[in-house]
Here is the input.
Amino acid sequence: RSIKPNVDFVAVVYQTLSNFGNPAHPKLEARLKHLQAMGLIDEMQLYEPKQFSDEEKAHYCSPSSKELGGPPSMVSNQFFNELVKRDIGRQMCAAQGCTHFMSMDTDEFYKQDELAKVKKKILEHNLEGTSCKMRFYFKEPHYEMMPFDEHNQVPLIYKLKPDSRLLLAHPYPCIVDPTRRMAGVTRFAELEREDVEMHHFSFVRSDMSSKMINVSNRDNHDGAVQFLREFQNWTPDVGVIHPHPFGRKIFRFISRVPNSFGVDLSWIDKI
Here is the structure.
């Protein structure tokens, strides 16, 4: 809903079985069809996760990457499933004649006025790729983890070109998700917070345990079990809790903020 006024086509690539073999919510497809009927989704495609051969892994990895820590064959399948899903979305947008592409997860929001200004800037400067910084919310949409994370960014808008595709861990000028990196980008800009921010509601969930057991980088969560116990009874006076060691290092306190996007965790249960 937050991006719809600024885009021409919304493609959803979804799974009924997670990358770790866990079933999705039984009402997932019914809920997606409801959102499509509301006009928020234009096209949907079911993706079935798979096991990748060594040859396939090499095909999807950037040959110039220095982040893999070994040959592509050593990389876990969930990262390739995530990358392939994103690239299917890219192809769906290209098939509809889109000139630009955003690879997003469903817990990511953008302010309409900021996105509109960034689109104009991208066209004026003929930018082929952009990234922006993020803000992170916790348990309820009006609680934000602070201070800002000034290390990580998220790819924002890519220009679609015939010779460009997503490659795992492709070298980038900033730290971004390794499954969202497009090769062949020559004009890239890291946008300032004054331009645009991505509002990440990663920890605002009606079922946090589902996220923790299915997220691609779950092996990096060294405190997942304790986190889930603490999350259930968490209140703002407890302060920051986080399953990832980097998150525990960066975020120090909780700030109460407006629910700018009108996020309501209860509405989905009515479908």
